Amino acid sequence: MGPSILITGGAGFIGSHLSNELLNRGYRVRVLDNLCPQVHGVDRERPVYLNSDVELQVGDVRDADAVRRALKGIDAVYHFVAAVGVGQSMYEIAEYTSVNNLGTAILLEGLLKHRVQRLIVASSMSIYGEGLYRRSDGSVTTGERSVHQVRAGEWELHDENGAPLAPVPTPEWKAPALPSVYALSKYDQERMCLMIGKAYGIEAVALRFFNIYGPNQALSNPYTGVLAIFASRLLNGNAPLINEDGNQLRDFVSVYDVARACRLALEVNEANGHVFNIASGRQIRIRELAERIANVLGKRMRPEITGKYRAGDIRHCFADITLAQRVLGYEPAVSLDRGLKDLAGWLEGQIAYDRVAESRAELAARGLMV
Q1: Is 182 assigned a catalytic role?
Q2: Which residues, 6+ apart, have CB-to-CB distance to 252 below 8 Å?
Q3: Three-class SS of residue 339?
Q4: What is the mean pLDDT, run by run of 10 residues, along the chain of 370 residues?
Q5: What is the DSSP annotation of 1-51?
Q6: Contacts of 170 (CB under 8 A, 6+ apart)
Q7: Catalytic residue among 27, 78, 96, 182, which?
């Protein structure tokens, strides 16, 4: 057998696919996961989709003893543990900070006692805030929308002279904007891992994931990926709800491409010390995405455009993946059409509880939805 790999948070969506990718390449895989009820349900049982060859240790990354046990005999670590969700992070501030920041700190202290060759941390596109934009003169810039602007339903960004800004692919060198507690905590995770890795001679790599979709997503978690939320609505006979006007541009990438990128981040020597965008390199409007998933599922429902703005949301962000292509040899292989058909096949027979209205009411009651 090959080297032993630990995936923290590995019983979740991405970790389950990475486990399969690694096992198929001869690695041994251990997972540390607390089986959070919001993701795994109140029974907190081993997920049926988790490969039977994966050693699952149930425990919290904030528990130093659990981390110590999980690291025993391990050669490399993927750190995927995170409380996920922009909206929820804006009111469950202590929980997000505890899981994401403190959890990462305790894992890193464990790694000071049990050194591994490589540490790969899951970062997020959310740290960019708004993506990169081009001015009418061809120069690139960044921007931010004011509360006054979004309250007036003026969704697009403009320069200081009122001229519209055109969104362009966002590269890794764009400065972070951190519009939510979630984004701030993901940036802290990324920076802590790279910093401690450099200081102690642990090879560290950060992967900034864009919008990931595919089988094994948590359909009943209203703070998960947007495609899973749309699917949950549709499976329950409800139209997808879309904030603003639905013309937001995003980059959606198949979980199979992400799993392969994660493996490359482990195996490519030159990856050490780098931060990579992991995405499809293509963009789509949210409105179109909702229509396409409805068509694939055979649901004749058009999305409901709410005209609402959620605190922490951004207008446009899609990835420049040039660096991952050049250094990792990463090339997305799953088209959106193929990926949606694969997702639809998995959705047959799945049970999804639509909690979107409940989560939206929670945000509105706190003044986070306008």
Answers
A1: yes
A2: 210, 211, 212, 213, 227, 280, 284, 289, 336, 339
A3: helix
A4: 93 96 98 90 86 97 98 98 92 96 98 97 97 95 90 93 94 95 97 98 98 91 84 92 96 98 98 98 97 94 93 94 98 97 91 84 88
A5: ---EEEEETTTSHHHHHHHHHHHHTT-EEEEEE---HHHH-TT-PPPTTS-
A6: 125, 128, 131, 132, 277, 317, 318, 319, 320
A7: 182
